[in-house]
């Protein structure tokens, strides 16, 4: 092994400053990854406190006020500090240049700046917690958010700042995908994860500015008394919801599209079969990104908006089901007659197919006005969006972490433990959130610290399984980190799953500081399992 | 064409003069009462001015067409946002078919001259002038 192959981005250059000032997309990706996981644990801890409070009726552990703070912080931390930055910021940063054969993203300095902007915004959010929390719910609906004495301002300021990080990352990725592909890597030869990042980035740069505007308008009304949302000043409170959801519904696709991309990578590799319907999956990503801009009003069916727009929004919402269905069926058909192996990434991908389908279909229920009027703000909605966000995005994120872990760090985790943890996540998740569908159907409203006796049984089930879910996720992540301590190294040239994309075939594990030791030459498409045989090589 | 297009000074001066003229139009039109059309005219003039700046001063006209696509997309998304939001505010309270029950929002917009002041709960501050709220006064 030459001196050159021993060098990788983790050990060269050395020193704390070489990390803090790094322009290497892989190192920036790792910094996103570790801060994301940190916030994931914080948000998860708050969730468990809430679940244990809800194990029995009455205020057993925390008071009503603390509970209000808890659900607000759980939502805000999970969405703005973990899910939105995590997949594009962490996995996207690490993988995108590798997948397109580039040395780095198009604007490496901007990339580092966007990480620091994210950290700066996160400081404001953390200040909110130290300073006594915020109790408006993560949506900051007016009129309460203009009147609440809790820390609405630092929290919204933090979100405002983090939004810029999101925009800059999106801009960077779009420029990278357009300009940095190696010769011969045409659009239809791109890995589908890259298409997913492209769709995500388009939504990030077109929708996020509206969030910033919304937060600014909220502060203008709070501080200067300019009537935008307050009827007493000539404003319209429902207008706030229009502004907020014009960003936040597309933001749902910022959260889920990269997850779709991960699943589109995991399933063909671990089934050793060419992806079914490549172009359909690629274009369904773009059409989801577009339709996502037309459906925001389905969050507002009980807000008092006009019946006319309710009908329009409800109708358009059903269209989201079409490209999403295209993806689900394509993934299932990819596995058909493939050599499916139950590796940890595939376990997560299969969980994703189950959980996301339930989440997506209950979304169609909620998109129907007549049903949503009854189910709005009940646990049915809570269960639905957890099936999409956690059962979908976070499960896919864990799958992606397991898939690219040997690539990113050159170490392999214990696969048996990882499989058991994945099973635990699947069972624990369903145990926690399926009862919440029933709770919602029976009328349990969301955002209450206590409830009537009739809901005790289902709530205690939910709490019990949330413990199992929490432990399973903890084991899954600790198992990954344990591979560092155990130093279970893989050979730098190994390709443990038999992947065909450039990051598997042309870089070492972990990759060289400049990604490729020589300019990569494209020899086959990303999923050409029908044409080329790629061996699974995994040596200790 | 995309490499370093050099714009003649004459073009810049004409655009600058057009922008100044359009600023004059904005001021002038604000003194003319066109009813609801005032806002439409103001927005059209502003969009035209911004487009001139983007196309000529920022060289969008001679640039890669992908950048133009991005610019037009942002206009399109803005259009979508305003149009669909108006589907709510224009028809709020009904299906938009009955003119007598339409437009509570429009009344609010003109409230500075026509309606009495209300407190934060929407109750009138001086009750004598408002017959719409007589039910609420029984509370």
What does this molecule look like?
The complex is a heterodimer of chains A (540) and B (139). In chain A, 68% of the residues lie in helices and 0% in strands. Chain A has a single domain (12-505), classed as Cytochrome c oxidase-like, subunit I domain (Cytochrome C Oxidase, Chain A). Chain A has helices at residues 3-6, 16-20, 25-53, 64-100, 108-130, 144-147, 152-179, 192-224, 237-271, 278-291, 307-335, 344-367, 369-375, 379-409, 415-441, 456-486, 502-505. Chain A is globular and about 65 Å long. In chain A, helix 3 (25-53) packs antiparallel against helix 4 (64-100) and helix 10 packs antiparallel against helix 11. Chain A has 540 residues and is mainly alpha-helical. Chain A is built from 17 helices and no strands. Chain B is flat. With 139 residues, chain B is mostly helical. Chain B has a domain at 1-63. Helix content of chain B is 56%, strand content 0%. In chain B, helix 1 runs antiparallel to helix 2 (37-57).
Structural class of chain B: mainly alpha
- The first-level CATH class name of chain A: Mainly Alpha
- Which of globular, elongated, flat, extended, rod-shaped describes the shape of chain A? globular
Number of domains of chain A: 1
**What is the element string of chain A, with H for helices and E for strands?**
HHHHHHHHHHHHHHHHH
Output the structural class of chain A.
mainly alpha
The secondary-structure element order of chain B is HHHHH
As residue ranges, the low-confidence spans of chain B are 129-139
Greatest interface by residues involved: A-B, 26 and 28 residues
Please give the oligomerization state of what you see. Answer: heterodimer
Determine the fraction of residues in helical runs of chain A and give it as a percent range. Answer: 55-70%
Range of strand content of chain B: under 5%
Name of the CATH architecture of chain A: Up-down Bundle
What is the average per-residue confidence, as pLDDT of chain B, rounded to a whole number?
Answer: 76
Overall pLDDT confidence of chain A: 93
Q: Kindly estimate the percentage of residues of chain A that lie in beta strands according to DSSP.
A: under 5%
Radius of gyration of chain A over all CA atoms, rounded: 23 Å
- Rounded Rg of chain B: 23 Å
Largest sheet of chain A: none
How many strands in all of chain A? Answer: 0
């Amino acid at each position: 092994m030459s001196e050159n192959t021993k060098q990788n981005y983790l050990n060269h250059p050395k020193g704390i400053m070489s990390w803090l000032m790094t322009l290497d997309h892989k190192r920036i990706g790792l910094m996103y990854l570790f801060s994301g996981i940190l916030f994931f644990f914080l948000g998860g801890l708050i969730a468990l406190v809430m679940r244990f409070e809800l194990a029995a009726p009455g205020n057993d552990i925390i008071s009503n006020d603390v509970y209000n703070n808890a659900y607000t912080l759980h939502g805000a931390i999970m969405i703005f500090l973990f899910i939105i930055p995590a997949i594009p910021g962490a996995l996207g940063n690490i993988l995108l240049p590798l997948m397109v054969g580039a040395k780095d993203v198009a604007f490496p300095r901007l990339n580092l700046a966007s990480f620091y902007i994210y950290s700066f915004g996160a400081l404001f959010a953390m200040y909110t917690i130290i300073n006594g929390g915020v109790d408006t719910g993560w949506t900051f609906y007016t009129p309460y958010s203009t009147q609440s004495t809790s820390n609405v301002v630092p929290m919204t300021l933090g979100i405002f700042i983090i939004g810029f990080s999101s925009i800059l990352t999106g801009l960077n990725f779009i420029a990278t995908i357009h300009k940095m592909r190696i010769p011969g890597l045409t659009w239809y030869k791109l890995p589908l994860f890259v298409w997913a990042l492209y769709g995500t980035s388009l939504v990030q740069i077109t929708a996020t500015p509206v969030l910033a505007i919304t937060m600014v308008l909220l502060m203008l009304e709070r501080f200067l008394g300019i009537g935008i949302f307050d009827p007493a000043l000539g404003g319209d409170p429902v207008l706030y919801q229009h502004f907020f959801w014009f960003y936040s519904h597309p933001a749902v696709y910022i959260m889920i599209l990269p997850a779709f991309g991960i699943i589109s990578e995991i399933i063909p590799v671990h089934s050793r079969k060419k992806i079914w319907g490549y172009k359909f999956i690629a274009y369904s990503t773009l059409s989801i990104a577009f339709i996502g801009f037309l459906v925001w009003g389905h969050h507002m069916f009980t807000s008092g908006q006009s019946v006319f727009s309710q009908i329009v929004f409800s109708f358009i919402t059903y269209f989201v089901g079409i490209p999403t269905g295209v993806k689900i069926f394509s993934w299932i058909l990819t596995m058909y007659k493939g050599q499916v192996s139950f590796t940890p990434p595939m376990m997560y991908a299969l969980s994703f197919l189950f959980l996301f389908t339930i989440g997506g279909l209950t979304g169609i229920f909620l998109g129907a006005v007549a049903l949503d009027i009854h189910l709005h703000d009940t646990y049915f909605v809570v269960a639905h969006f957890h099936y999409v966000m956690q059962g979908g995005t976070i499960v896919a994120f864990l799958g992606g972490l397991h898939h690219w872990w040997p690539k990113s760090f050159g170490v392999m985790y214990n696969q048996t433990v990882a499989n058991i943890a994945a099973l635990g996540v699947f069972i624990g998740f369903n145990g926690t959130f399926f009862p919440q569908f029933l709770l919602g159907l029976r009328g349990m409203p969301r955002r209450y610290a206590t409830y009537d006796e009739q809901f005790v049984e289902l709530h205690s089930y939910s709490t019990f399984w949330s413990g199992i879910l929490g432990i399973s996720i903890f084991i899954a992540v600790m198992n990954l980190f344990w591979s560092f301590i155990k130093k279970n190294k893989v050979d730098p040239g190994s390709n443990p799953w038999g992947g065909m994309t450039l990051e598997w075939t042309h870089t070492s594990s972990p990759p060289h500081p400049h990604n490729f030791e020589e300019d990569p030459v494209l020899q086959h498409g990303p999923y050409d399992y029908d044409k080329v045989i790629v061996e699974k090589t995994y040596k200790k | 064409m995309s490499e370093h297009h050099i714009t003649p000074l004459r073009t810049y001066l004409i655009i600058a003069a057009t922008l100044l003229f359009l600023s004059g139009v904005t001021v002038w039109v604000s003194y003319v009462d066109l009813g609801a059309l005032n806002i439409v005219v103001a927005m059209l003039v502003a969009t035209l001015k911004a487009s001139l700046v983007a196309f000529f001063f920022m060289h969008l006209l001679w640039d890669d067409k992908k950048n133009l696509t991005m610019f037009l997309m942002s206009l399109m998304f803005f259009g979508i946002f305003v149009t669909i939001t108006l589907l709510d505010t224009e028809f709020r309270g009904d299906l938009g078919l009955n003119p007598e029950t339409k437009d509570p929002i429009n009344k609010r917009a003109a409230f500075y001259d026509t309606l009495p002041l209300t407190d934060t709960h929407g109750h009138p501050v001086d009750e004598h002038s408002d017959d719409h709220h007589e039910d609420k006064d029984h509370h």
